[in-house]
Amino acid sequence: MVVYVGCDHAGVDLKLKVMAALPHVQWKDLGTYTVESIDYPDFADKVCKHIVDLELENKRKKITDTLDSNTAGLLICGSGQGMAIRANRYPQVRAALCWNEDIARLAREHNNANILCLSARFTSPDQAEKIVQTFLQSKFEGGRHQRRVDKLSSDTGC
Hints:
Layout: E1 2-7, H1 12-21, E2 26-29, H2 40-61, E3 71-77, H3 81-87, E4 95-97, H4 101-111, E5 115-119, H5 125-137, H6 144-152
Parallel strand pairs: 1-2, 1-3, 3-5, 4-5
Helix pairs in contact: 1-5, 2-3, 4-5
């Protein structure tokens, strides 16, 4: 599994701990690499660009479950919320802010989430490891959920 990961200065420590705890994952670390203050949208954009490319290729190949391509995204900032807001501005991205394993599982099963967002300030390294593992191991259920996910990417707007 390839996971594109990005974080802001608040997320560096948690990012490094999660990556070390899950060495079987092929991490593509897109930064930041320092605790110096940076702007989280810049790093969310780096991860999202890879996920958008993947989703467009999946659509061409008629692959519905993002993780069937063995690729996902992980974004970490202080609250996780800023990263999720920025990531979800991309039509092909379904970023989920998850705070426990059940939410991570449901984000994958029901929403076909392709980016996991974590809060560095409110998630312990042990809990983050479990959330990431659950997210990466969960499968999209499709069926009635596919119809709903399709509406998330529609051009009709609100």
